[in-house]
What does this fold into?
Amino acid sequence: MTANDEQEQRRRRQAAWRGSHRVLERRGMDGTVGEGLAALAAGAGSVHDPDSAVDVYGNGVVADLERRVAGLLGTEAAAFFPTGTMAQQVALRCWAERTGDATVALHPLAHPELHENGSLGTVSGLRTVHPTAAPRMPSAEEVREFPEPFGTLMLELPLRDAGFVLPTWDELEETVAAARERDAVVHLDGARLWECTEHLTRGLQEIAALADSVYVSFYKSLGGLSGAALAGPATLVEEARVWRHRYGGQVFQQYPAALSALIGLEKELPRLPSYVAHAKVVAGAMAEGFAQAGVAWFRVRPEPPHTHQFQVWLPYGAEALDEASLRQAEETGVTLFRRWTEGTTGLPPGVSVTEVTVAEAGLEWSAEDVREAVAGFVGYLG
It folds into this structure.
């Protein structure tokens, strides 16, 4: 596909998603610049004094956001970062210097391993090892018996590329304890930590207290424009601010991103438990719909979902599945699935995967609505 073909396909997708009257999730990135600015202006006054001065190099509304995050997570301090990639690089680099060990134990499906172009090693001089390759968090036994030394254990909660999977609370406590036995520090990749409370049956502060540091994202589940925070001990955060500047993250003004994050914390965070609960209804109905439609093989992973996001696997090429998804959206105004990929790590040959997110718009779907949409989608596969 040429660059022009891809641009045209992107325009087609955007038009289909925007034109759909029924979706499981409406994303800010599907809107226009004007719509985004209007939404930000409409919500900003409820979370921050609009007559206050704009931020300059991290003061003002950015500092307010940092204090809010530290309070929510129960940590001494938090620092705003323009990206989660930078926040985690800095956190892991700081811990390597403090422990004297540049080796980080993490999952091979973790974000730094799959989606950051080898940045931990190339930029920060860190080395990674993998206590397990199973599509789940490493167990306490795997951490305890891993034959190589490491200074930091990084746990991604949930593990997105395994299907947004989470451990049980007991399993998480045991794995952290095993790392402590090895004198390793524990860092949580909590890009989607906000929605983990239901499955783990614990509040944000109790979850964060297990670790030495935690990173959270503001755009993945909260609908912010961009940005992340690194939270932990005040001395670590102070050091992280220095490295943030060195990595080019000391941005002159960031009030649009900070305001959108505060709006997300105010409006979306309290709704996440309802999204998680309804995702179980949607996932179960999808499985029923594929079975009723005569699809011989499929997977909904995990079933039931651990958060408000999950994967669907189907034995077709991604191009055919994308076309079926688009035609359904264009011709019926129903967007059930968005993008499909194949050749992904962990997938069987000939199988494609998509990620499903259930948010506010998805609460309107009944189980029967989902089953009908699945039947319609399968019809477009021919």
